[in-house]
Design brief:
Number of domains: 6
Structural class: alpha+beta
Mean pLDDT: 81
Distance between the termini: 63 Å
Shape: globular
CATH class of the largest domain: Mainly Alpha
Number of helices: 29
Length: about 775
């Protein structure tokens, strides 16, 4: 007993030592920064937080205080924030996890630190209700505070980065939820704020937890091709170094390797293997300008010097020096042909531009004493204003809200000129109508068309960088529901929806009155059960939708409605009801009675042939999909998962479980907006069932191509072909092959075998 007490005290001493070392490292980093040295308040915040979290541990087993210290370390070292942010980072979980309040923080540390801590504290309850993830609600609060103080979102990104670095201690379903939120919200947000290094790490960590096998495979391939890249880099940069030395420049040349997530993303989007990704290597030239005035000129002088050595790609010159991105990024991007016949991108940037690219100008926004607001900071303010406008929109749905924010975060920028020659930054893919709403809501809502480069175009016309746009309006014009199909910016989408909702409320009120009169005329009262029956008859989900449909005359009340309310429809429905499930062979293995009662695992039951999640279900444990229970899960058509795919489960409103690929766009949105409903899903199949797969093939046309394809699939591999269609045009043969496969391994084997056929150029799966 005495020995145990002694051991415990030794462990505590060691832990205190680790905590103290972590804090001292934070202080040393802060003292080495250019900020004013406010060590006292940081030390005070550290001791306060340490006392508040005393005795609490993280899932990994380490003392909780190490988390806020790590978040503060990231804020100080990797973003360059000062004492206010470091204090807020040290205190960011105190209000949420202890009995201390925001008022306590304000009294001890001041209003500014308290306001930031409040912005970082999660909300209990929320406008989206328990059906949606609290993440959307907390994110909205975060953005509201951010528009007053950008440091709130910067510290939140630091918090998220540390959580991602320590994600291994979480159960799989939590890993997918947190990784999904990170990829959907926080990585694009870090990118929008110019935190390129952090954005890349967040993406890679998310990828690592969602697709561990793919991540490991890409990492191994990057390592195995290192020698080849080193040779290419040295041979390509040697003449450049010589030219820059002659110019008398002080510079450094770095190799930039594409991140595993970026490589995988490109492989997925272009349906190509690792070996066909040719831009893994890029060259970065960072120079020290002789003077501030000469900075931009020297950038182009370097480009001219390199252009004498290598041929440049005519369509791949990007001038971000004279036209910085909205996140402050500046550089000159050019693509050159190496002597080994490979295109290589060169990024030319000054030391200042490099610092902004890596850390982001947002870190120093408005906190540099006695300095004027720069043009970059004006752009950040414009972006924050757009975010405010989205937040002002009355209580959007959780999914719509996050999607609207994402529209702003992900978009790359193009330059549009007004009729007076002013430059406006717009997201790529925007339309003339988006531009109208960007200038003013009145212009957008009364827009009838536009003149682009003095030519008349419709509202849906997609703008290109460099277009000069004049908006045409009419007072008689009204917002049309079809507009939502072609506006792409968050601001325009939000305004169109808000105007339509306002008009819908009037139509809804009119429809409600019409229904009320019709029911009274036929001796019925407007009760919930009556409305439910009419909603069921007209396939509407909500009473409000029914009122709108009646108000705009898309539903005309008549005989069928009376039949529904008097019960005459019930018999017709019963005789016509049938289920698609009786046509699926492997669902006939159990009788209907068995299917209703057979249990699958604790907390799960079967109702109507589908698994239903109960209160006792443990979401931390994975569900196993096998031949006996696969029919009881919902498998949507959005991503067509088959055994072997990285999969997850999503519990819908009825308690049923949908199975999605982890990389499915729908699943990505679900992870971000409905995280608590995500469960880990694993396959336990034994190559007895067949799943449909479609493979597209493109080849040089030649005699016998169809015979060779059929021979490889049917004879060599023994796979059953459902359908094959090949067509030839100008010597190119294209086709689709529909086959039955057991799992992902079968698909990979077939695709690899098809690639070996003479003349085949590309093989890809069609989802």
């Amino acid at each position: 007993m005495e020995k145990d007490i002694k051991n415990n005290s030794i462990d505590e001493v060691k832990e205190d030592q680790v905590i103290e070392e972590a804090f001292q490292h934070l202080l040393q980093t802060y003292l080495a920064s250019p900020h004013r040295k406010k060590v006292d308040i940081i030390t005070k915040a550290y001791h306060f937080s340490k006392q508040a979290h005393k005795g609490v541990r993280r899932l990994s087993g380490e003392p909780y205080i190490l988390h806020p210290i790590s978040v503060a370390q990231i804020a100080c070292e990797e973003i360059g924030l000062g004492s206010t942010s470091i204090c807020a980072a040290l205190l960011h979980d105190v209000v949420e996890d202890t009995d201390y309040t925001v008022e306590d923080i304000a009294n001890i540390f001041g209003a500014k630190i308290a306001m930031i801590v409040d912005g970082l504290t999660k909300i209990s309850g929320g406008i989206f209700g328990d059906k949606a993830s609290a993440q959307a609600e907390n994110f909205k609060k975060l953005l509201l505070t951010m528009s007053d103080d950008i440091r709130v979102i910067l510290i939140k990104i630091c918090d998220r980065l540390h959580n991602m670095r320590t994600l291994a201690s979480q159960p799989a379903n939590k890993q997918y939820k947190i990784a999904g939120e990170t990829l959907y919200i926080y990585a694009p947000l870090a990118n929008r704020l110019g935190l390129n290094k952090i954005k890349t790490e967040l993406e890679d960590l998310s990828f690592r937890y969602e697709h561990p096998d793919a991540y490991k495979a890409i990492e191994n391939k990057i390592a195995s091709t290192q020698e080849k890249r080193d040779f290419l880099f040295e041979s390509f940069t040697a003449p450049i170094r010589e030219a820059l030395d002659k110019m008398g420049l002080k510079y450094e040349i770095k190799a930039r390797i594409k991140s595993p997530y970026s490589i995988w993303n490109k492989m997925q989007n272009k349906h190509v293997p690792f070996e066909e990704i040719y831009d893994i290597l890029a060259v970065r030239i960072i120079y020290d300008p002789k003077s501030k005035e000469e900075e931009a000129n020297e950038c182009f002088q370097i480009y001219v010097a390199i252009n004498k050595l290598y041929k440049s790609h005519p369509d791949r010159l990007r001038d971000w020096v004279n036209h910085p991105k909205a996140n402050g990024y500046q550089a000159l991007h050019v693509t050159m042909m190496s002597k080994l016949g490979q295109w290589i991108e060169i990024q030319i940037r000054s030391r200042r531009m490099d610092e902004i690219a890596e850390q982001g100008f947002a870190a120093h926004w408005k906190y540099k004493e006695g300095e004027e607001v720069t043009e970059e900071e004006d752009e950040l303010n414009d972006w924050l204003q757009t975010i405010k406008e989205i937040l002002d929109d009355p209580q959007p749905d959780a999914m719509d809200f996050l999607d609207a924010i994402k529209l702003n975060l992900f978009a790359s920028e193009i330059f549009i000129f007004t009729p007076k020659g002013e430059i406006k930054m717009m997201p790529a893919g925007c339309t003339a109508l988006d531009f109208a709403f960007q200038i003013h809501t009145f212009l957008g809502s009364h827009c009838i068309g536009a003149k682009v480069n003095h030519k008349l175009v419709p509202l849906s016309y997609k703008l290109q960088s460099g277009d000069q746009v004049e908006i045409l309006t009419s007072k008689a014009q009204r917002v049309e529901p079809t507009w939502i199909n072609f506006v792409s910016t968050a601001k325009a989408k939000g305004k169109v929806l808000a105007i339509l909702r306002r008009e819908n409320r009037e139509v809804q009120k009119s429809g409600e009155e019409m229904l009320k009169k019709w029911l009274i005329a036929h001796n019925f009262e407007m009760t919930t059960s009556v409305l439910d029956k009419l909603c069921d008859l007209h396939n509407t989900n909500k009473h409000s939708e029914l009122f709108v449909a009646i108000g705009n005359k898309s539903i005309i009340l008549g005989e069928p409605d009376l039949d529904e309310l008097t019960g005459k429809n019930k018999q017709k429905k019963e005789t016509n009801t049938s289920s698609w499930r009786k046509y699926v062979p492997f669902l006939k293995t159990k009788t209907n009675e068995e299917a209703q009662t057979t249990p699958t695992s604790k907390g799960l039951k079967v109702e109507g042939g589908l698994i239903v999640v109960g209160k006792d279900f443990n979401k931390k444990k994975p569900i196993y999909i096998n031949e006996d229970n696969i029919s009881r899960y919902i498998i949507p058509h959005c991503c067509h998962p088959i055994p072997g795919d990285d999969a997850l489960g999503y519990i819908d409103n009825n308690g049923h479980i949908e199975i999605h690929k982890r990389a499915c766009p729908v699943a990505t949105r679900l992870k971000a907006s409905f995280g608590p409903r995500i469960v880990d899903a694993k396959w336990d199949m034994h190559k007895t069932l067949f799943f449909d797969a479609t493979i597209a093939i493109r080849s040089i046309d030649r005699q016998g191509m169809l015979r060779d394809v059929a021979n490889v699939i049917s004879d060599q591999l023994g796979i059953n072909i459902h359908k094959v269609a090949l067509s030839s045009n100008n010597g190119i043969c294209e086709g689709r092959i529909e086959i039955g496969v057991h799992d992902r391994e079968d698909v990979s084997m077939i695709m690899n075998s098809l690639k070996q056929i003479e003349g085949v150029q590309s093989v890809q799966e069609i989802i």
